[in-house]
Amino acid sequence: MMRRLVPLIAAVLALAACSSAGSAGRQVSSDGELACTLVRMLPDRMPDQPASGSSDHSWDVAVGRLNTAAELARVAALEDTKYQPLADTLATARQTFSTTFDVHRAEPGIKQARTHC
User: Fold this and answer.
1) 103: which residues sit within 8 A by CB, 6+ positions away?
2) Model confidence over 38-61: pLDDT tens digits?
């Protein structure tokens, strides 16, 4: 029984450590702060979509961060209305990308989102 609990205890401790500290040991306490962290990680000029078979993942990473930041901001706004402008701005940027398939058209929204962080 104890042999089976050791990996479980280790996993729980690892999850607790990951969820309680941000980069450089700084505690991240809200979904809104996490969204802002991702917004700050987005490049000023979004990368072009790579050619098929390319090993460059910068476009996928940037699009993933945009989508994740938008979702985190949406959830943050549900709990704290101060994040509503960020959520609205990121939702618009994400929608722009989703309808045009051109991530560069989302850049003005990303720039505006930075002002809400």
Assistant:
1) 46, 47, 49, 59, 62, 63, 66, 97
2) 999 999 999 999 888 889 999 999
3-state secondary structure the chain: CHHHHHHHHHHHHHHHHHHHCCHHHCCCCCHHHHHHHHHHHCCCCCCCCCCCCCCCCHHHHHHHHHHHHHHHHHHHHHHCHHHHHHHHHHHHHHHHHHHHCCHHHHHHHHHHHHHCC
Per the CB < 8 A criterion, the answer to whether 74 and 66 are in contact is no
pTM: 0.74
